[in-house]
Amino acid sequence: MPMAARQDIVNLCRIIQRHEYLYYVADAPEISDQEYDRLLNELKKLEAAHPELITPDSPTQRVGGAPLSKFAAVRHSQPLYSLDNVFSLEELDSFDARVCKGLGVSEVEYICELKIDGLAVSLTYEKSLFTLGATRGDGKKGEDVTANLKTIRAIPLCLPEARDIIVRGEVYMKRSDFSRLEGFANPRNAAAGSLRQLDPSVTAARRLDMFCYGVLAEHRTQEEGYRLISRLGFKINPHRRICLGLDAVKKYVREWETRRGELDYDTDGIVIKVNSIAQQQALGFTTKAPRWAVAYKYAPEQAVTRLEAIDIQVGRTGALTPVARLTPVELNGVVVSNATLHNEDEIKRKDVRVGDEVVIQRAGEVIPEVVGVAADAGQSRKSRGVEFVFPRDCPVCGAPAVKDAEDEAVWRCPNADCPARVRGALRHFVSKNAADIEGCGEQIVEQLHLAGLVKTPADFYYLQYEDLLKLERMGEKSVRNLLAAIDRSKQAGLARILYGLGIRHAGQYVAEKLADKFHSIENLLSAAETELADTDGVGEVVARSLFAALRTPELKNIIRRLQRAGVNLSGGRPPVSDKLFGRTFVLTGTLPTLARAETEELIKSRGGSVSSSVSKKTSFLLLGENPGAKCEKAKKLGVPVIDEKTFKEML
What we know:
By secondary structure, the chain is α+β, with helices and mostly antiparallel strands. It is built from 24 helices and 20 strands. It has 5 domains: about 5-60, Helix hairpin bin (Helix Hairpins, Orthogonal Bundle), CATH 1.10.287.610; about 85-295, DNA ligase/mRNA capping enzyme (D-amino Acid Aminotransferase, Chain A, domain 1, 2-Layer Sandwich); about 300-385, CATH 2.40.50.140; about 420-565, DNA polymerase, domain 1, CATH 1.10.150.20; about 585-650, BRCT domain (Rossmann fold).
């Protein structure tokens, strides 16, 4: 074996593993995505030339192997207990009283942490290597999802210390990543569905994350255990707090009831644990849960109203989504008349019918959803309406609906010329995160489509002044403003336009990664499927979809017409010498002129990164009007606080 190649591979693995930790765990990247991709590609080339030197903990082995036919069962070495729930401060008083009585003390030191709304898993390491990952299951037995967990970059494949250890944590999906998916009820369901994909490349494309909360190892306190697993390279939620006595616990509970909206992930409560391991052992367990821990659950914002109808909406990808039409009701200060029912399976599971009194709720930033039939509405089954029958044809164009796979919950219209799909695709193209054609709202798009002026994204760039004047409520000034906005959008760049084209699986993140790697549409069109799959965040399934889409005559024609119209189809991250390279920004409040999405794009496009929470690693807090608690934390930690004017000067 060539010793030089072996040493090069070892060195590259160490470098890449360090930068994965800095990016995905510490939230403090030191290199650009381009530089990371270059290092990873260099490692792939070396391993391709010397396959005998590939090790299980190599960064290239996060996604690999053929899809599974099913998951194997795993018996946990120690049970994964669930937690008892409390729903009020009075119930929390009772929990504390039981703990104090059981320990024979008047006051207990607790550790409080956010309850992540995700999926519990167990990670087994043998001689520092990650060898087995399993779901919680029933607490005694779970499923072997090792291949899928390897795709989560917050999970180290190899520990810095040679030891056997079991770490437990919660896999979750960020809200920002959930917003790009269809067919899932909420981020938790999306995370669970993604983790149980038989093809790991699908899981990889979903960008799951994980916080660790426990370790089967010797330590004196819960906090000491956290410090151990943090030292070993695992991601720990930064918002935990040691609280001496119940009053401090209640203060933490109240604080996060108002602050949880600041986060980019869902948390439905607070986990409160006795900090001392000796005291935990003294209190012990019931048959189902530990006596030394409890989950305080926040009450969801709910209301009861009448379900008047169920309509089917057709999205740009053809997804048929059931929407509940409701008697208008106020929920958290907003009048709600529509709510999602997600998919056919959810309607059957909840057994909601037209005419029912139903409970609706709004959690975090997710749109309102129907929880189920109101329990106290006095509705007997005999008096209820007929069961809703989900259509097997597209309600807009009549095409027979299809499913991609037997186990997928979403029915889709396969007709690319379906008017609903076309209008959805056009609305997506002009949206803020895509081409960003200001003033081209839903009504304008519908008028343009009905008039036969716009059928594909490229058609926007061939609109004529005289044609636009014929539209309703479009005077000379409105037409000039729209044409000027269309002209400005020509400089949106490759990533935004690629995202705007609405290729299935090519969300914002994938589009940005493709633009960073290939830099032009020509390079992208000529790329092999294997090159696409080698792009960070893509994988085999997404690459297959992209490769097929980019070779369809319809999409090729759109791309050529965009080029002829002068649309810039090049771009990617600038060189690492940019002023914002390596800087981490946190945003709070409303900026005078810049929208949040626009500001984040400005930071990322110049080599910086954006975090949802303030820490010692934060470079700057960008402060707007009506800021949250992040400002006080930044001041305590000595993080520089800047305004929009200073930010623009930095650019």
